[in-house]
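Record 1 of the preview.
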Amino acid sequence: MIIPMTDMERKLTEDHLPLVSKVIQTLTCSCRYVSYDERQDLLQIGNLALCKAAMNYDGSRPFETYAKVIIRNAIYDYWRSLKKERTYTCSIDTIADQKTNTSYGQLLADSSSLQHLEQEENLRTIYEYLQTLQNTNCTTIKKGIHALLLQQSGYTSQEISKHYGVPANRVRAWKSKARKYLQQDATLYALLS
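->
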């Protein structure tokens, strides 16, 4: 049975709608990237939690403090449920290895198509172009491109920093400068699209 909100609860909810965005911003400020869809999901969960807080509010403490806790806990519950769903799934490589003792790549090798070969050729062309950019730029950009290529091969910033004998934050700065440089390169953009 759905219990409708009273006018007072509705007004309390409407007056505190910006609170949901503030709580979400606080919880996601340390995240590198939160997509539009993820943010919309969090807003919906937060708004529902705000309605729940307004309906259960007893007036014994400030509403804003009470609502922040309810919204934050609802978002944490959502994240826990997502994590729980992810732990019960496994990669297709694991399934292929367990069932047939072959890798997913071997399963696809039988049905490799012209498109797969084109992708490999495009990747090779992009890699060669990055090599030429690396050789023609200043030292910082050159090191940044090399670090990005190493990262693409699976190395971490700490491992790359040991290779160069510098702190990891310097490697991250090189990569950042190289990314900015590469984002402005029209030829690379054309190769990627």
